[in-house]
Amino acid sequence: MADEVKIERNHNYVTLSLNRPEKRNAINGAVIAALDQMLESVERDPDVRAVVIRGEGRSFCSGLDLRDIEQMGPGGLSFEKIIARLQKLPVPTIAAVHGDALTGGLVLALTCDLRIAAEGARLGMTPARIGYLPTYWIFRKFVETVGPANTAEIMFLAEPVGANRAREMGLVHKVVPDESLSAAAVQWAETIAGNAPLSVRAMKQMIARVMSKAFEVEHSDLDELGNRVRNSQDAREGVRAFLEKRKPVWRGQ
Length: 253
Fold this sequence. Notes:
Helix content: 40-55%
Strand content: 5-15%
CATH topology of one domain: 2-enoyl-CoA Hydratase, Chain A, domain 1
Structural class: alpha/beta
Number of helices: 11
Strand order of the largest sheet: 1-2-3-4-6-9
Low-confidence stretches: none
């Protein structure tokens, strides 16, 4: 498990590195379990004041490993639970994005409080290509971050955008040369860790509370809609076509 995600403890911040470079750091069950374990350790350590999340190899994270995730079945530890845990982490989090950050990988980055992208990064959401629908929370997060118009572009086109376009949208905070990404993320982590920890933790809670109230609406009908889409014949066809490396045949069913 520990091999799937590496953890490096610095003086008062932690770096978590997704470590499946041969799979472009696609998220499987082992990655989910390792992240859960490591986020729990951060929660219990009062000396950690910031967290950097990055990827080994050519990409930040190419998304969920559909072959592995499909075999996990319902129940148990899930990617959604990891995202919820990351969102509630009491200290600021920084995503250092290079290469591909796609679908689940982009959701992972978007859940972080701050995002720095390398110039060569590509960020996108591709569920429309396989007949899936992100959860209500994911749509809410995109809308509150980049607005409805940019969310529509990202979701409907399902085409990754470059780092500079992502910066224009507000999807990332800063773009740096590829070779400067690690140093930029470390600089932000060290700056945050050097500030008053009680103030920073309270600020994170303030921001979260303001946004939760601003976007609090009834959405049980949308949850049901999402379940119908994710359990549709098109969704099954989309995953099969992706794994078989062919164009899907959509039937609207």
